[in-house]
Amino acid sequence: xxxxxxxxxxxxxxxxxxxxxxxxxxxxxxxxxxxxxxxxxxxxxxxxxxxxxxxxxxxxxxxxxxxxxxxxxxxxxxxxxxxxxxxxxxxxxxxxxxxxxxxxxxxxxxxxxxxxxxxxxxxxxxxxxxxxxxxxxxxxxxxxxxxxxxxxxxxxxxxxxxxxxxxxxxxxxxxxxxxxxxxxxxxxxxxxxxxxxxxxxxxxxxxxxxxxxxxxxxxxxxxxxxxxxxxxxxxxxxxxxxxxxxxxxxxxxxxxxxxxxxxxxxxxxxxxxxxxxxxxxxxxxxxxxxxxxx
Amino acid sequence: xxxxxxxxxxxxxxxxxxxxxxxxxxxxxxxxxxxxxxxxxxxxxxxxxxxxxxxxxxxxxxxxxxxxxxxxxxxxxxxxxxxxxx
Amino acid sequence: xxxxxxxxxxxxxxxxxxxxxxxxxxxxxxxxxxxxxxxxxxxxxxxxxxxxxxxxxxxxxxxxxxxxxxxxxxxxxxxxxxxxxxxxxxxxxxxxxxxxxxxxxxxxxxxxxxxxxxxxxxxxxxxxxxxxxxxxxxxxxxxxxxxxxxxxxxxxxxxxxxxxxxxxxxxxxxxxxxxxxxxxxxxxxxxxxxxxxxxxxxxxxxxxxxxxxxxxxxxxxxxxxxxxxxxxxxxxxxxxxxxxxxxxxxxxxxxxxxxxxxxxxxxxxxxxxxxxxxxxxxxxxxxxxxxxxxxxxxxxxxxxxxxxxxxxxxxxxxxxxxxxxxxxxxxxxxxxxxxxxxxxxxxxxxxxxxxxxxxxxxxxxxxxxxxxxxxxxxxxxxxxxxxxxxxxxxx
Lengths: 294, 86, 395
Description:
The complex is a heterotrimer of chains A (294), B (86) and C (395). Chain B is α+β, with helices and mostly antiparallel strands and 86 residues long. Chain B has helices at 38-42, 68-72, and strands at 6-7, 24-28, 48-52, 55-58, 78-82. Chain B has a domain at 35-81: Alpha-Beta Plaits. In chain B, the strands form two sheets. Chain B has a two-stranded antiparallel sheet with strand order 2-5. A two-stranded antiparallel sheet of chain B has the order 3-4. A seven-stranded mixed β-sheet of chain C has the order 3-2-4-5-7-6-13, sandwiched between helices.
């Protein structure tokens, strides 16, 4: 029996990719870990007083300051002489990390704190009801970028957070997907064995926000990678060191048709053709930049 | 006076999310299991435990019935059955 | 030991002896001299502290929130825009009952941008659940920090404390300050031993969601604690004098209130000027006095009421204004008098905003104005140019 450090009883939706990823991350990190968490799905569904699903020390402060609070925890541990035996992991969603939390994350990375930051990316502000974030992919329909007569959904593609963090010249920055649990475990263990700031971007499908049956979370988490839309990469000291390669990539349509948030793209029109082209171009850029084809 | 909004670990175990299920629950056939542990790894609730090397079971007190374990089992040894079935 | 020292450096000396394990810094005029001096002390080994240069005041407050929650005594300082930028975190710190101490070097709020002194910044945060003390001079700027940590970390209190000192007037002003000794500080402030902290040996979850069934109780608890703190501070006045050998008022100071008919109430450095004016006017036979408020939060209602028992006219000088209403201190004093059934006039005077100098003759003018029981909000010493339409500055 696995001794989970993130236990059952939390109120995440059935099939929630984020709750799965959080459990995998913490089991890999071990019990000598302190977690700081931004406001968001994970914090709300796991810490409604008096219930908490965490078996390690955990603190939630505000939406945009998880990295700054973690910085404070880390220096306190150093001052108390016990940093060597405690991991500090800071966590947040895509909104709390890439948008409102970007400043404090950048500060933490730049100052060189010995902290692993994990961003759980469900591609929208899910906790507040599926609003568009800087990590929402192109053409996804959200409540603030809905598809309609005059719109095909979110116009902008995702921000490249792993590259932004790698550009701080931190020792380790990587992407992962909850469709590859063993990879997440390996990456967390690797990250915490390195001293300094680390960043891990985990792709976590959301059954409610992306509109699909909960049992498809694993399949969709793999499809994003298998189509080349979400490359699995590792940066070490600012340079790409490893990527997950494929003999052949699946067509983007397979990823899109599995989710209701893209159903407006399932029709035929010149605009939609253009949109699919745009997505294919993203895939081609990823192929070139990350050498995705074996 | 101090009213701390602070909790001791794992108090969420008091919340039996198994009550969320309405349609179906996982049945572990325990016939062709190869002990790969993929069901254990994929459960968002972390409620699948091993009884023995090739015998696994979901804790129905917490299982929300998402069906991820049934989809991922490489030997199709987990089936989603009706909530009221045995 | 008495030294001739800049106010901000007197604060740095106090903080050094308090030995915070974490000091967090983000620059803003006029607080920066404090954190600069502290960083020199760290660089030279005089202060053993983790010194963190953050990327915004919001993060500065967040860092000390995290470090205090982990069990390390921490410190930061700010002013004006920095204080209100971190206001969200300040509410968070108080709500989590973390004993953080910060120095607010009072400065006006933008817009227009103005780096000079008034109390608008700390007044805007008065609802946050932080205790607030206002220094009259740099001896108090130095001393109030010892009190701040002592009561913040008191296990029956566990609330954050803000020590307020007027920007430039005190922070950059040189005065003779009796700097405490390390022995005195060690005797006065015990080591920080938190009741709750982040520790893998004893895991806890902090910052949970508080639904309607628990939230009100947390606010009630802070309010009750603030009430209880008033009597604890009175005991600390005695304890402080025993340890440091000097008397320092920690709640209010009654200056020549015996037989006073007209009294001005004020906070911060202006009280020093008012004391001089009171002395002069008393020489001339005028029955005037000053009620200086040191502890603004919690608001020492009973002490203030007692002090004003036989006073006939009350004037309140605010270096801030709740725009659309009145001066914050005035509103609280007026409400206090009314709640006690008093009908004596409480007049409001708004002075010194944006660093406008308050001269002794202005105070004399205010005392004279009080004879007429002025109603409403009275802005003092406005320049004449704004009345002239042609004076709208374009070029």
